[in-house]
Amino acid sequence: MNDYLRKYRNWMMLGVFIAATIIALIPLFGVLGYVLKNGLSALNLQFFINLPKAMGMPGGGMANAIVGTLIMVIIASLIGIPIGILAAIYLTEYDRHSWLSTAVRFATDVLTGIPSIIVGIVIYTALVLKMGNFSALAGGLSLAIIMIPLIIRSTEEMLKLVAHSIREAGYALGISKGKTILRIVLPTAAKGIITGAMLAVARVAGETAPLLFTALGNQYWARSLNEPIASLPVQIFQYATSPYKEWHQLAWAGSLVLISIVIILNLVARFAFRSRSI
C-alpha cells in the first residue's frame, strides 16, 4: 500500500511539473508563432538591401537599421566585454573579500536590475547633451553599460569553477600569478566566459529605450559614429506606432529578424560550448 501511494505521488508531481513546463512554454511559442505569421509575408530581399521609403509609401527596407544595430552592438562589445572580464578577474583572483570587492558586487547586482531606460537617460545627460548630438558612440556606450554587470557575474562564476589546485600547479612551476591567470585559468574557463559574453550580446541587441535617448535613429546611412544612427529596435518602435499599414508589415518583418538574431546568439551560446568541462 505504501509503495503504491509513493508511486501515485511521484506520478502526480511529475504531471504537475510537466503541466507547469507546458504552461511556461505557451507564451514563448505564442509570441514566436505570432511574429512569424505576421513578419514572414513582409520578409524579402528588398527588406535587407533597401533604405526606408518616405512616410506612407509602400516598399522599402531596414538595411540601415540592421547595419546600425550591428555597429552599436560591436561598439558595446568592444567596451563592455574587456571591462567585464577584467573586473571579474580582479574580484575572483585578487580581491574576493575586501570592502571594495563587496561594493563592486553590490553595484553589479544593482546595475543588473536597473531599467535600461535609466541608463539611456544618464548617457543622454552626461554625453549626448555635452556633445550636442545623438550618435552611434552614445548608443554603443549605453548598451555597454547594460552588458558590463552581466559579463562580470557570468565570468566571475566561471572563474570560481576553476579548481584552485590548477592555480597551485602553476605556482609550483614558478609561474607568476599574472601568467597563471592568463595562460592557465582563463583558457580553462574560456568557453564559459564566451558563452556569458554571447548571452550578454543577445540581451542588449533588442534594447530600445536607451537608444531612443542616445542613437535616436536615422532614415539614411550614417556617415560616421558621431551622428544619429538607425537601429532595428527603434525602427520597429517607430513603424509599429505609425498609422501606415505598410510600415506595420515592415515592423513585423523587423521583429522577426531581431528575434532571429537573438535566438541564433542564444543557441550558439548554449550548444556550441555545451561540452565544456572545467
Structure in words:
76% of the residues lie in helices and 0% in strands. Helix 3 (63-94) packs across helix 10 (232-240), helix 7 packs antiparallel against helix 8 and helix 10 packs antiparallel against helix 11. The protein is built from eleven helices and no strands. It folds into two domains: 2-42; 45-271, MetI-like fold. The chain is mostly helical and 278 residues long.
In short:
The protein has 278 residues and is mainly α.
Which key features would you list for this structure?
278 residues; mainly alpha; 2 domains
Shape: globular
Secondary-structure element series: HHHHHHHHHHH
CATH architecture of the largest domain: Orthogonal Bundle
Structural class: mainly alpha
Number of strands: 0
Percent helix among the residues?
over 70%
State the CATH topology of the largest domain: MetI-like fold
